[in-house]
């Protein structure tokens, strides 16, 4: 019962503070009401990442309603590159990203 009471107290505090400082209130300072939220491949997949994983994850974020809750970011952390070109720019791994990074970015946006 004490655990439930603590949870209820915390939920009430969040609700009251969001009403007191939310957008449209006199105290709203223009900063985000939530931190930046999204999905990063690294902790779950490490270097086992590819085009299909990113695009299907982004689709699930939308399908599950997470985008509407503020999950706006899909972050490709590492292991997407096959190295550098002769002019020094990073080149995508064409096996993992057969349609290129521009295609992935266009699909995500």
Task: Write a short abstract of this structure.
The chain is of the alpha+beta class and 109 residues long. The model is unreliable at 1-16 (pLDDT under 50). A two-stranded parallel ribbon has the order 1-2. It has a two-stranded antiparallel ribbon with strand order 3-4.
Number of continuous helical runs: 4
Low-pLDDT regions: 1-16
Head-to-tail CA distance between termini: 46 Å
Helix content: 40-55%
Gyration radius over CA: 20 Å
> Which outline best applies?
elongated
What would you note in describing this structure?
About 40% of the residues lie in helices and about 15% in strands. It is elongated and about 55 Å long. It has a two-stranded parallel sheet. The protein is of the alpha+beta class and about 110 residues long. The protein is built from four helices and four strands, in the order αβααβββα. α3 runs parallel beside α4.
From the structure above, extract its key features.
two-stranded antiparallel ribbon; two-stranded parallel sheet; 4 helices; 109 residues
Secondary structure layout:
Blueprint: H1 2-21, E1 37-40, H2 42-45, H3 51-63, E2 71-75, E3 81-84, E4 90-92, H4 100-108
Parallel strand pairs: 1-2
Antiparallel strand pairs: 3-4
């Amino acid at each position: 019962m004490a655990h439930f009471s603590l949870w209820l107290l915390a939920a009430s505090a969040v609700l009251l503070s969001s009403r007191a400082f939310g957008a449209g209130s006199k105290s709203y300072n223009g900063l985000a009401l939530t931190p930046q939220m999204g999905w990063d491949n690294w902790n779950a997949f490490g270097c086992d990442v590819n085009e299909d994983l990113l695009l299907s994850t982004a689709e699930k974020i939308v399908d599950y309603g997470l985008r509407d809750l503020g999950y706006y970011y899909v972050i490709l952390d590492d292991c997407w590159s096959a190295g550098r070109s002769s002019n020094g720019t990073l080149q995508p791994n064409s096996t993992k990203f057969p349609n290129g990074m521009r295609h992935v970015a266009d699909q995500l946006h």
